[in-house]
Design goal:
Blueprint (H helix, E strand, L loop, with lengths): L5 E7 L11 H11 L5 E4 L7 H9 L1 E8 L24 E4 H5 L5 H19 L10 E4 L9 H7 L3 E4 L2 E2 L12 H5 L5 E4 L2 E4 L9 H5 L5 E2 L5 H11 L11 E6 H8 L12 E6 L7 H9 L4 E6 L14 H13 L7 E5 L3 H13 L21 H12 L6 E2 L8 E4 L9 H4 L6 E5 L3 E6 L9 H5 L5 E4 L2 E2 L8 E10 L6 E4 H14 L10 H17 L1
Parallel strand pairs: 1-2, 1-3, 3-4, 11-12, 11-13, 13-14
Antiparallel strand pairs: 5-6, 7-10, 8-9, 15-20, 16-19, 17-18, 18-21, 21-22
Helix pairs in contact: 1-4, 4-8, 10-13
Amino acid sequence: MTAFSEKGVFLCECHGKVSTVLPMDEVCRFLQHRHPGLPVIVADDLCQPGVPPGLIQRHGIKPVVLGACSQLSSKLRFWEEPEEAAVDPFSVRIVDLLRETTSGWGAADLVDRVKLLLWAQVTRQAKFNNVPEQALKVHFTRPLGEISRRQFFEMLLPRYRVIPYVQPEKCVGGQRCHLCREICASSAVVIDDNGVLIDKLRCQGCGACAAICPHQAISHPTFSLAQLDVEMEGLLLSDGDMLEPRGVAITCQSCLASFGKAEINPFGSVPNMLPLEVPCLAMVPPWLMLRAFDLGAQGLAIISNKEMCQLGLDCDQWQGKVRFVQELLEQWGVEPERIKAFDGSRLEPELAPLAQQVAQLPPTLLRSCQPTTVPDSGPLLPSLIAGMTQKLAPASGGAISAGSVPFGRLELDGSQCTACGLCALHCPTEALHFLSTGDSCQLLFEHQSCVGCGQCVKICPESCLHLENILELDRLNSPAEAIFEGEIARCKECGAPVAPRAVIDKLRSKLDAAGAQTSQLEICPACRTKAMSGMAASRMRA
C-alpha cells in the first residue's frame, strides 16, 4: 500500500449545487489560514467509486475531512479499490455541505457555519490515532422495507462498528472498581480473573462506560473525550463575530441519522447552534456540558430521541446531569436557562426558542477567557470546575446538591468504625486512604476525588459510613481530611504493631459475649507462634 505523508480536506462541488452557492475559494483560504500548509482539494463526484481513489493517487493526500453530501458516508467502502489507495473509513469525517447550502440561510451565516463545521472536524481528526482490533465489532445491516437485489447482496457483506475498549495499563481492576459494569445498559462489561473486558456481542457502542471511568481506562477510538473536546473548541473558535451568540447542540448519532432522511435541515432556523455528534447521550458527562461553556458557548442543547435511541432512553435520563450543571452555572452567576435537554422529535419548536432566549442574554465572561487546561490523566471534572470557579467566582463557596451530583461528602461514625480499611481498598478513585504508622492509623477522605459511587458504604462491614451526593466548591482544592483516627495496639510480648485498637476492642466485645478467651488478641503472630512451639516442645519432653 502506498504511503502518503500528507493529510488534507476534500470538498465536493456536487455538480454545482454546492459551488454555486458556497464560495469554495474563501472556505479554502480560511482552512489554510487556520492550518498553514493544509492541502484542500476541490473536486466533483466524490460519491462516485472511482473519483476519490484517483484524487488520492494524483495528489498523494489522504483525506481526513470530506465536505460533500450525506450519500458519501454509505459509499466509503468503495474507496477500498484500488487497494493502494485505500482509506480507512473510520479516519474520515464528513460534513454535509449539500444540506448546509440548501438550508436557506443568508450568505454570511452559511459561509461562517461551513467554515466552523469543517475546521472543527480538521481539529478533531488531529486527535484520532487508529482503531485497534479489540474495538471493532462485526455486524450486518438490517433491511427496512422493500430492498433491491443489489441491496440484498450488499447486506450479506459484513460491516464493522467501533465500540469502546479497555486499556489494561490504566484500569485499576474490577475488584476495586466496577463503575463501568454498573453503568452499562447492555450488560457488556465483564469482570473476571483476567480483569475488565467488554463483550463485543453485547456492546452497543454507546460509550457510557468510557464517560464514567475515573481513570480514562476505557476509550472510544472515534469518540474519545479528547476528540469531542477539540471539536467543540473548533466549533466555538474565537475569530471575529462569526454566528454570535454561538451555541452547541449535542446530539446522538441515531437522532442525527433520522434527520439525515429528512429533506430539511433540522437546524435550519438556528444557524448559530452547531451540532456535536456523540454515539449516545449516555456518553455525555457533566464535564462535556461544562466544557462547552468553558470554551465560550453561549447556549447548549442536549437532544435525544427515544424512538431512535439504540438503548431506548429518553431525555428524562439526562435531566439529572442537566440540573447539576444548571445549579453550578447559577452558583457562578451564569444563567441556567442557557442549557436545556429535550426530545429530538420536537426539535424545531424547542431549539429555536432556546436560541432566541440565549440571544437576549448578555455574553458570558467565559467567551473572553482562556479555556481551562485539561489534565492528561485522572478525573477531568474537578479540575474543570476549579478552573471555571477561578474565572467566574474566585471567592465562591457554596454547595451543589441538585440533580445527579458526581461528587460525595462522606461521614463516619467513629464509635462503630474498626479501621479495617476495606472502604479505602475498594474506593475506585482513591478518595479514601488508609494510613498506618507504628502507633496510630488514619482514614483520610479527599472530596475532589470522590465520584459519589457509594462503593465504600456498600462494603463497610460495620455500616458506619454515610454518603451524601453533594459538591462543596470550597473543598475542591483542599487536602485530604482525617475522618477517623485511632491507636495501633502493640504486642504485649515484643512490642510489635498488632492491629488497630478499634479492631481488637470489637473482637474482645464479641468474644467476651461468647465466653471465649481474649488473652491472645494483643499478641503478634510471631510471638504466638513462638509460644505455641514452646508448648509443643514441653509436651514432647513430658
